[in-house]
Recover the amino acids of this structure.
């Protein structure tokens, strides 16, 4: 009976693709800043029979029968997130960070309301009001930028802009800004203009959970995040907020923006949050940042230019225009991918190339740190990256780099 058959019997092509992807993850150095390797426990939860269950509603208040067991992981995910982030109320049902932002917008904004957020090419995110995203189409969005000289957000300039624009919501948070956000200052700016403050901590959930970065909870009415990046839990998003917004947020997520929650992912969030409560996770989060700072030092020594001159977190944004004007971000991504180092091309502040070409690369340490790489190995990886960029046409260099990448991957397996 087909129902009893394994994936490779039913669908060999898909089965093979999964095997290849597992092998690709083992045999390359994943340095995409938003990616990580989840534990076997999180994989088990996400691959469980919870995928079969519909559970519209919230614990103890569902629209369908048979929800007595799915309530447990959702309640645990909520309680653990409350403890990790110091939140009054948590919703763990958003399918992604973007869905979490949608939930906040739908809870307190009307179409046409004003949002002030960081520009995508200066490190922001599509769901913060880019015109190709629902957020830019539904709301009246103005964006702030980093200071062109320093690469840091200029909070005085942001305050002036907020006074002039008079937004209903100010968004802090980013996908490619290498510095810690000053949540307190942004909260004060939002208060001064009568706006809500949404802190989107998607990239730094793990750093905040571990206490490596300060929590925005006291300075923002809403905090959103994705749950599979630095925090390494089940894939998806979450919203944290004060109790007074709890009902509005919950209704905005379901039934406002979503239907049935993905209970297997909610269970993955519960499992990952349990891991994030351990001292081992604190060490992991500290090491992610140490590794990124180590990488920044190597890159700087090798003449690469970093937006803002370095990093406070798990990622670096390399601006290639000065050191390698003839290599685009797209070409750098391909050159590195060919030797087994996986990064993504990224726009940089003042970008003149298209987002599909770009002048920069974003490089992150979450996945390598999960594999166990520390400063010594990260220094090697940094030198390998610089070697490839400095010798884009030298096959001997590329062969040497690829062989060292193989050795590192063999020495630091993900699951085996
Ligand atoms: N795609 C994610 C990133 O790479 O930062 C954000 O959603």
């Amino acid at each position: 009976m087909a129902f009893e058959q394994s994936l490779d019997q039913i669908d060999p092509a898909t089965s093979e693709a999964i095997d290849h992807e597992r092998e690709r993850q083992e045999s390359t150095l994943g340095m995409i800043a938003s990616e990580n390797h989840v534990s076997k426990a999180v994989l088990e939860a996400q691959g469980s029979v919870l995928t079969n269950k519909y559970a519209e509603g919230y614990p103890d208040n569902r629209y369908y029968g048979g929800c007595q067991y799915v309530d447990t992981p959702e309640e645990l995910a909520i309680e653990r997130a409350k403890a990790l982030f110091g939140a009054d109320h948590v919703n763990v049902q958003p399918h992604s960070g973007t869905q979490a932002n949608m939930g906040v917008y739908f809870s307190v904004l009307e179409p046409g309301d004003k949002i002030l957020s960081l520009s995508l090419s200066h490190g922001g995110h599509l769901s913060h009001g880019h015109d190709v995203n629902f957020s830019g189409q539904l709301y009246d969005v103005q964006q702030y930028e980093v200071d062109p000289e320093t690469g840091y957000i200029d909070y005085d300039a942001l305050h002036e802009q907020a006074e002039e624009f008079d937004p209903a919501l100010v968004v802090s948070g980013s996908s490619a800004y290498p510095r810690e956000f000053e949540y307190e200052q942004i909260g004060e700016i939002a208060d001064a203009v009568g706006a809500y403050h949404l802190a989107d901590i998607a990239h730094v959930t793990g750093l905040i959970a571990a206490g490596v970065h300060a929590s925005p909870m006291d300075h923002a009415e809403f905090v959103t995040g994705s749950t599979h990046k630095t925090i390494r839990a089940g894939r998806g998003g979450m919203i944290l907020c004060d109790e007074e917004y709890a009902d509005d947020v919950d209704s905005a997520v379901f039934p406002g923006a979503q239907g049935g929650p993905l209970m297997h992912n909610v269970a993955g969030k519960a499992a990952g949050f349990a891991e994030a409560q351990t001292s081992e996770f604190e060490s992991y989060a500290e090491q992610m940042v140490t590794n990124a700072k180590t990488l920044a030092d190597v890159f700087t020594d090798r003449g690469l230019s970093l937006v803002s001159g370095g990093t406070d977190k798990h990622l670096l944004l390399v601006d290639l225009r000065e050191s390698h004007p003839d290599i685009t971000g797209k070409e750098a991504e391909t050159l590195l991918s060919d030797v087994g180092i996986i990064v993504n091309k990224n726009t940089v502040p003042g970008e003149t190339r298209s987002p599909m070409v770009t002048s920069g690369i974003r490089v992150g340490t979450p996945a390598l740190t999960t594999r166990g790489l520390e400063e010594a190995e990260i220094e090697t990886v940094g030198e390998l990256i610089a070697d490839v960029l400095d010798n884009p046409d030298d096959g001997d260099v590329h062969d040497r780099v690829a062989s060292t990448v193989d050795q590192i991957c063999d020495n630091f397996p993900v699951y085996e």
Remarks:
- The pocket of D-serine is lined by residues 34, 97, 125, 175 (CB under 6 Å).
- The first helix runs from residue 7 to 10.
